[in-house]
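Explain this protein:
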Amino acid sequence: MSDGHPRIVIVDDRPHGLSALLDAIVRRYGADYRVAGHLSAHALLEDLAAAKREGDEVALVIADQWMPEMTGRELLLRVHELFPEAQRALLVGWGEKRSSDVILQGCALGQLDNYLLKPWSPAEIHLYPIIGEFLADWARTHGPRLELVRILSPEPSARGHALADLLERNGVPYGCYNVDSEAGRKILEETGVDRDRLPAVVMLDGRVLQDPTNAELADALGAAELEDGTCDLAIIGAGPSGLAAAVGGASEGLRTVVVEREAVGGQAGTSSLIRNFLGFPRGISGADLAQRAYQQAWLFGARYVLARRATGLRRDGAWRIVTLDDGRELAARAVLIATGADYRRLGLPRVERFEGVGVLYNAGIDIAIALKGQDVVVCGGGNSAGQAVVHLAKTARRVVHVVRGNALSKTMSAYLIREISRLPNVQLELETEVVDADGSRGLQQITIQRCSGATEVIQTPALFVMIGAHPHTDWVEGIIERDRTGFIVTGNDLGPKARLQFRDREPMSLETSLPGVFAAGDVRAGSIKRLASAVGEGTVAVHVIHEYLQLVPGTERWETIASAAV
């Protein structure tokens, strides 16, 4: 009989291990969750089938990996079919080499959410913090949530969903209400919202914003204050590089302002799980990492101007003036451009629905290990695609390389073409496009179409879309030197004409063709398009900016700040 509490279900074929884990979880979570344990995979599946019939919610399923009936990974796949919203944890032993590949592959392909290690005693150190993370992830989507902001809209409402996405990505707790629901009608009566101007946003203090723009919503949340319009360091972009610079600059005494056009975290903030960032062995979501960095910089004194786009940049003596899309200007002693770049998409909704669960935009070492022995597909004819093919071919059973053009020589370096041609497990498909994708729990197959019109279905858990990136640099066209693809050129790579701007000195590392303006992260030409690299460049940029400020005439106080920061 259901008691209305969401379930935590555990399976381990070793009675002693199951009993200890069950007792520990009941002690901590038994008041809020219905906790049950099973000694066999089949018993657990029967229990979950009953829960499904009774309409119960399942928050977390913990499965031992090595069981006689089926592996934990296989079991969690079947759990996902019954309760796709449940968190799935694989239970493995400390130091089990054979388990690491299972975990990496399972997480990469969306077959499990994360893992628990055994033995785990004392629970307060090794068990409860991890269980808490699982339950927090489940509760963010399925449990009750704090609501600082309420969105009232009809369904469906593209604009209502866009406002919710903006709040979600910026870490603002909110609730969504259909205007025709009982709760929605109640809010309508209490606030006097005009039904003809939906969606509406109701603030915690009772203010109502009728069909607000992103900028109006940011202003209402107090996230667009410029104070006196001057600062020491203006950072354009709140992705990993910009946030790292904000933490470094603000903590070292620089009056720091961060301008972000969309959401804190940038492209990295949309990643469901980042597994290769230093210090997070179980991974961390991009949104969580971004919010931690956002709050860290804010505590040090950094201020944010959100939902505003930089539209212009000029020099005014020792100042660098950034113009915003609302007409305001921000005067800074130094500027860091960290606006990042967007990976180009295929533009196929049936393909992009698998983003993060099979459709990927980079091929790191962790992904290559996770896909060991699998068939994978790489789409793209440039150097980044070629490097991905070579990298993945080391572990994959087969790599299908899909290229729209009729020759690699037009877009790829000769050394990469030679290397790819020597790889026996690479299947090159020229004049071919990806046209469809399908799968139930994640990507399972893609369809390619050749120039003849013939199609082929390829069974694969991973499609790597490597067709380039678009940097957000249109606003500095004609002001700052960029390469042919729009990325910002810095330091020693600047051309002779740009170097004339520096007169009696050489451009510094990360400095652009406009002295006092720097670039870091994915927006910079030649940068390594990885999270850790972007964070590193943001940190290094602050050190270089301190050096620059010591060179600016009449800025003795910058020298004092820089000396104090050492």
About this structure: The radius of gyration is 26 Å.
